[in-house]
Amino acid sequence: MLAISKDFAPPLKLISPFFKVGSGFYLLAMMSLLAFDATFSYQEFSIAGWIHLYLLGFVMIIIFGAMAQLIPVVLEVGHAVVDLYYVILPLLGMGTVIMVGGFWINPVLLTYGGLLVLISMIIFAFEALVTLKKAERKSLTVKTILVSNSYLLLGILTGFTIALGFSGAISVDTDSLIKAHVYAVLGGFVLLTIMGLSLTLIPMFSLAHGFDETPIKKGFNIISLGVGAVFIGALLGENLVQILGYLITMVGVVLYLYQIYIIYELTVRKEMDIWAKSLMFAFASLIISLFLGAIYLLGMNSNWLHASIWFYMIGFIGFVINGHLFKIVPFLIWFERFAPLVGKEPVPMFGQMYPKDKAEMLFWFSSFGTVLGGIALLIENDFMFKSSASLLFVGAIFLYLAMSNMLAYGKE
Amino acid sequence: MCEITKEQVFEATATVIDPEVGFNLREMGLIYDAIINESCNITVVMTLSTRGCPLHQMIKTWVQEAVEKIDGVGIVDVEVVWEPEWNISMADDNVKEALAGGTPQL
Asked: What pLDDT, on the 0 to 100 scale, is given for residue B104?
């Protein structure tokens, strides 16, 4: 028999600000969508500003906060230097605001904002990699964190080079660097991180056991290869290598989806709570994104690509993150405020610690908004896109309120 | 000769609730064995529903404290094992039915 013992939870005061600030950035990102139309080019500064507001302010900040808690869970070791997370949030938050200001107001700001973001991410990646070295059990999740953080470093280095180029400090081919940067971050870091964490978290919450991990292992290797091919192909200007990279990545995503299906088939816990519903929508969005992306690669216009990225970013990433917030945040609050009371007085269950009405509102407003937005981008309908932005904005208000409620639960 | 029975130990662990699913550890089938020696020192052999559970250390402490409440008990130790791996077939029927039916345990 194999026995282990551990207790590595970081303090609530370290992690909770990530979730509060992250949900605030989500609110800002959804509100600012109201200013956009359904017709655009991804190279426009206004679009780049919004993407950085969403990806850095919401996605990265929440992922970093979640990783502060989840790295010990999935690696089964404590953080190497957990206090570094106190530095990461202010650097990343300020860097995001200044970078977005750089895109929307004055490009000179890009270098300053980019530098703060670069430093925060290097600290994060450094801490994660040092912690990884302590892990005795080299599970797939450990490998995904290693590879995804390596892509994060490549992504932010190319991103900072682009920032220097835009601000006029150096002369670079920004078009090819943008593709490499976007793919390293969205495919290399975000997707691989979600894949790795989902292999631990989804079975944990759904109580699925004894499943074959072969599809996700293959999917992980294939996606790592595909992202590498697009990254190198973009830097070298080799279109064929890039297209090959896209196709390889798609095969990997299909294998990942197959793995999720295997886990779903073995799911014991059938309760359709906000987490389960959000994941259902997220994986449906990933399938739609894959389908739209495949059609784009067959030679359709860029609307298909825009809709594909929309479903990936808002539908998949957004719902995976928001759904998990209703599991992670109650746990953190419970661990800090109620765990010491166990055996002495009645304590709440995790499921009682989030506002179900607000969570439902978030889900329905956001899901309708996501579908409507995807259709609007596909047919370039501005009115429909504004309607979608309105729905997503209302959903984001409910997320922010729900987050405030959860963080205040049981507070004296 | 120690008069504490395994059933008493299992009963004691039934007071420990998993706050995520809302069932107690005994009905979840997470308590595998209770080894009781002549001095009434007890080793509870148990597992968790998932490896790397963030409540790992805390649940061990709760089980230890629950068993220490039994009259006449000596030293209590809790050993968490991963083999055999827990699965739903180890849980009581009420747990299986509630989870499969999507009933939240609140």
From this structure: 54
A318-321: long-range contacts, CB 8 A cutoff, minimum separation 24: A318/A26, A318/A58, A318/A282, A318/A366, A318/A370, A319/A278, A319/A279, A319/A281, A319/A282, A319/A285, A319/A366, A319/A367, A319/A370, A320/A194, A320/A198, A320/A278, A320/A279, A320/A282, A321/A58, A321/A59, A321/A62, A321/A63, A321/A66
Chain A residues touching residue B102 (CB < 8 angstroms): 269-272
Inter-chain residue contact B86 with A209, CB threshold 8 Å: yes
Pick from B100, B102, B106: CB nearest A349: B106
Fold annotation for B6-87:
GMP Synthetase; Chain A, domain 3 (3.30.300)
Q: What does DSSP assign to residue A10?
A: P
- d(CA B86, CA B76) in angstroms, rounded, equals 23
Q: What is the pLDDT of residues A249-268, one digit of tens each?
A: 999 999 999 999 999 988 88
A115 vs A99: CA distance, rounded Å = 9
The alpha-carbon gap from B92 to the nearest alpha carbon of chain A, in Å, equals 13
CA A148 from centroid of its chain's CA atoms: 12
Instruction: Look up residue A239 and give its amino acid.
Output: N
Give the one of A9, A272, A351 whose C-beta lies nearest to B102's C-beta.
Answer: A272
Q: What is the ipTM of this complex?
A: 0.79
Provide residues of A within 8 Å CB-CB of chain B: 1-7, 9, 69, 72-76, 200, 203-205, 207, 209-210, 268-273, 331, 334-335, 338-339, 342-343, 347-352
**What ranges do the domains of chain B cover?**
6-87
Chain A contacts of B88, Cβ < 8 Å? 207, 209, 268
Element (H, E) at A275: helix A274-297
Spans in chain A with pLDDT lower than 50: 1-6
CB atoms within 10 A of CB A412: 3
Distance, in Å, from the CA atom of A169 to the CA atom of A265, rounded to the nearest integer, reads 54
Q: Which of A5, A339, A349 sits opposite B22 (nearest CB)?
A: A349
Beta-carbon contacts below 8 Å between A and B: 99
Check residue B70 and give left, alpha or beta (phi > 0: left; psi -120 to 50: alpha). Answer: beta
Query: pTM surpassing 0.80?
Result: yes
Taking a C-beta distance cutoff of 8 angstroms, is the pair A299, A348 a contact? no
* The dihedral formed by the CA atoms of A311, A312, A314 and A320, expressed in degrees to the nearest 10: 120
